[in-house]
Amino acid sequence: MLPSASRMRRGEDFADAIRRGRRAGRPTLVVHFNAHEEAGGPPLVGFVVSKAVGGAVVRNRVKRRLRHLMRSRVESLPRGSLLVVRANPPAASARSEHLAAELDVALDRLLRRRGSGPRTPTDGRS
After folding, report:
1. Angstrom distance (rounded) from CA 50 to CA 63
2. Could you give the CA distance from residue 90 to residue 94 in angstroms, rounded to a whole number?
3. Bridge pairing between strands 82-87 and 29-34
4. Sign of the torsion angle spanned by Cα atoms 113, 114, 118, 119
5. How far apart are CA 111 and CA 51, in angstroms?
6. Where does the record place a coiled coil (predicted)?
7. Which residues contact 108 (CB under 8 A, 6 or more apart)?
8. Interatomic CA distance for residues 22 and 104, integer angstroms
9. Which of 5, 27, 28, 34 is the most buried (most CB within 10 A)?
10. Which domains, ranges and CATH numbers included, belong to the chain?
């Protein structure tokens, strides 16, 4: 799924991305992004899926789907950046195509604000 080196594990990284980063919200998810140009490591991606989304099985399914979607998008993030994807309750019943489209819109909005230019969709759509 998502490369091990790109998985966010420390609570400080989650807090840094959420508190100091910019965010883009969609009905099914909210993306928090904080770019650290001075850090040279790989981009770190974390996921937050609360109990409001559903029970443990539903939450784990949503996390797996989001990790799978981020696998092909992580290389478009700047090195050293922090990204947290927070699932909203509608993510539990959303189709994967819909989640992918909303994730692309949110990432595009955040990366364009940063000045990286427009992204091209990675799911084959024009």
Report:
1. 10
2. 6
3. antiparallel
4. negative
5. 29
6. none
7. 118, 119
8. 16
9. 28
10. 4-112 (3.30.230.10)
Tell me what the mean pLDDT of segment 29-57 comes to: 90
Q: Which tokens is 95 given?
A: 């189709």
Residue appearing with tokens 């998985």: 7
Contact (Cβ atoms closer than 8 angstroms) between residue 31 and residue 110: yes
pLDDT (tens digit, 9 = 90+) per residue, 66-78?
999 999 999 989 8
At residue 105, what are phi and psi to the nearest 5 degrees?
Answer: -65, -45
Query: How many C-beta atoms lie closer than 10 Å to residue 5's C-beta?
Result: 10
Output the pTM of the full model: 0.84
The two structure tokens encoding residue 27: 């009905």
Q: Torsions phi, psi of 46, nearest 5?
A: -130, 160
The beta strand positions in the chain, using DSSP E, are 22-25, 29-34, 44-49, 82-87
Instruction: Look at the chain and count its residues.
Output: 126
